[in-house]
Amino acid sequence: SLLKTVKAVEDEATKGTRALEATIEHIRQELAVFSSPVLPAKVSTPEDFIRMTKGITMATAKAVAAGNSCRQEDVIATANLSRRAIADMLRACKEAAYHPEVSADVRQRALRFGKECADGYLELLEHVLVV
């Protein structure tokens, strides 16, 4: 009975860690798709991409709060929000970069900055994981 209780407590204590690890892996996979030479299925306007900044800002604030509180519920919520926000941002970035009115130079810069944003966010999540 004691072992079952310890195992249940241990599982509950590591739930956030597992969720965060899965999110980090998911974002790495999204980055691989983003970096591939395959063109997006559709294009969107640069304005659609700019709207993604709100989701990234909210996810960043949530990640910082989770790192400060170290509560499992906060970490799980951060993992879920982060996965969605970064995946949406990368998709919108690639779709906007290939909009017909976007020049090759601007396309390359947009793709580079989208990757840098996701890489920076991964570093933030890895820091929360360590904490």
Automatic annotation (TrEMBL):
The record's Gene Ontology biological-process terms are: actin cytoskeleton organization; cell-cell adhesion
Q: What InterPro entries does this protein map onto?
A: Talin_IBS2B
Q: Which Gene3D superfamilies match?
A: Talin, central domain
Q: Note the superkingdom of the native organism.
A: Eukaryota
Q: Name one GO cellular component term.
A: cytoplasm
Pfam annotation, one family: Talin_IBS2B
One GO MF annotation is: integrin binding
| Domain Talin IBS2B span(s) in chain numbering | 16-129
Q: What is this protein called?
A: TLN1 protein
Question: To which species is this protein native?
Answer: Nyctibius grandis
